[in-house]
Amino acid sequence: MAPWTGAELLALSPLRALWLALAAAFLLALLLQLVPPGLFPGYAFFQDLIRYGKTKLGGVPRPAACRAFDVPKRYFSHFYVIAVLWNGFLLWFLIQSLFLGVPFPNWLHALLRILGAAQFQGGELALSAFLVLLFLWLHSARRLFECLYVSVFSNAVINVAQYCFGLVYYVLVGLTVLSQVPMDGRNGEWSLPYHRPPEGWSSVYVIGKNVLMQARWFHILGMVMFIWSSAHQYKCHVILGNLRRNKAGIVIHCNHRIPFGDWFEYVSSPNYLAELMIYISMAVTFGFYNTTWWLVVTYVFFSQALSAFLSHKFYKSQFVSYPKHRRAFLPFLF
Ligand SMILES: NC(=O)c1ccc[n+]([C@@H]2O[C@H](COP(=O)([O-])OP(=O)(O)OC[C@H]3O[C@@H](n4cnc5c(N)ncnc54)[C@H](OP(=O)(O)O)[C@@H]3O)[C@@H](O)[C@H]2O)c1
Known about the structure:
12 helices; binds NADP nicotinamide-adenine-dinucleotide phosphate; two-stranded antiparallel ribbon; mainly alpha; about 325 residues
């Protein structure tokens, strides 16, 4: 595990700046929920921008102009189609690089440098980034499966800005992981003696010889956490899907009901809590020290906390019998 140095903490690459800005925006949106309705101009537009799905139903009346930008929430599956394809593509480049010594193509290397990928500092492990990218791909594939076969979508909507954000989100997350792969330019020198880089390919190569020798205890811990959180998120999505199915598995309605079981006994949105845990498991896999990834985790924390807060309010406003002990997002706390 590499130590956290002051300089490393302070370096603000474009990717870090982006995740920091997103985290700050969602923290601000969360804090603005404490402001009484109508206290600032554009309150209804602001609420419409941050709400989606069932929470659009339980909030302030929606301006007609906002409804013109509605997109069906079932289009969530598009995000995961892009995520599976794009992150599969990045994973393919990384596998080729790690196991066959093929360098990244120039365009990808240039893109990573623009986004702030640093040269090898010492201590980073190519295996960590490989595992995180693999986890991200598996997560995207499972979510796609859930969208297609587990979840039952109602006529709930998201707005077009949220839709566009969802389309680029997993592209950015994948690039963020790849930008953490340790690379060595060595003044443009191609370092594998038995190979010359093909035309149009970068001479920068991934430091990943003896990848399997890089296995550490935190890779095992991260993997266990990833499997555990993913299993709970899947279970929660099954519970939600079953609320709209009969015992034979046939969809019988599209209403919102009170879910029970698994982590729903503790919080209103355990699927959002599991999402946070999945990203934390990736931070563990990076060996705990990766500042860029902790900024991604911070963004996920505030974005999921905001959605969980709004869902919790929705449930409490719709159901008088809603379990009193249930928190919004974090068991016993929030
Ligand atoms: N990393 C990120 O930035 C990010 C952002 C957003 C979402 N996500 C993840 O994506 C997953 C899905 O997010 P989501 O916001 O769509 O979750 P969600 O609102 O809980 O919805 C999941 C599914 O359950 C249905 N549903 C929700 N509440 C229900 C209820 N009370 N009764 C019956 N059915 C209900 C929804 O249908 P309808 O909504 O169609 O009614 C949808 O099909 C989550 O695990 C979340 O963590 C991640």
